[in-house]
Amino acid sequence: MITPRGDIMSKRTKSVFFILLFLFAFYSTVSHVTNLSLSDLDEWMAAKFNNKETRDVEALIYKEQELSEKGLKAKNAPQTYVSSAVVEAVQLLEESIDLSQYPSREVVATGYTAGYESTGKTPEHPAYGVTFSGVNVKRDLYSTIAADLDMFPLGTILFIPGYGYGVVADIGGAIKGNKLDLYFPTVNDVYQQWGKQTLDVYVVQEGTGEITEEDLENLNQDESLQVFRSQIRQ
């Protein structure tokens, strides 16, 4: 059955009329309750809508600023890096030596410090920083290292790739067989610059069973190696 076009238009007209009537009644009621004129009410609703938009925009801007500040703080936060100067100096030192002339030994090398975490001693301890040989721990061109004296007697000079020259001056309860402990000034240095590695080390000179502060100082004053010294001591 087809509805006449005139009837459809009549229904639409009635719908529009009732909607307008409802809106007029709504405005009239609100105006009566709030003592606002229809024009005042229109202005109030427009302002309300605009205020909401303003608040939304302000909230968005604040959020962006907050995220930007957080990103800036993260960017400017202090970062910890391994000293590239030390790594580069050791690499250059290694390139200047013909390691093939020395016998090699495979070892497991770890890092240690003079601190409580490695030795059980605090700075107040009278033997803090003093090795088994009696010399003080040192990180230099020739650094103090710990070894099993049955394998490497005191005073033995090793070249450890990635670390440099090490002079056996210390021992350790867990340093048995093919194990070495390499001295670093801080725990961060141990973790960032070394950790634990299995590698070949080179026996530059076998020790006599002793090493003194004077011996160590003379080694570190080798004029041909001074170009590397300041970087390694950082």
From TrEMBL:
One GO BP annotation of this record: peptidoglycan turnover
Protein name: Cell wall-binding protein YocH
Pfam families linked: 3D
Statement: the UniProt record of this protein carries the keyword Signal: yes
Source superkingdom: Bacteria
GO molecular function: hydrolase activity, hydrolyzing O-glycosyl compounds
Species, as recorded: Halobacillus karajensis
Annotated Gene Ontology cellular component terms: outer membrane
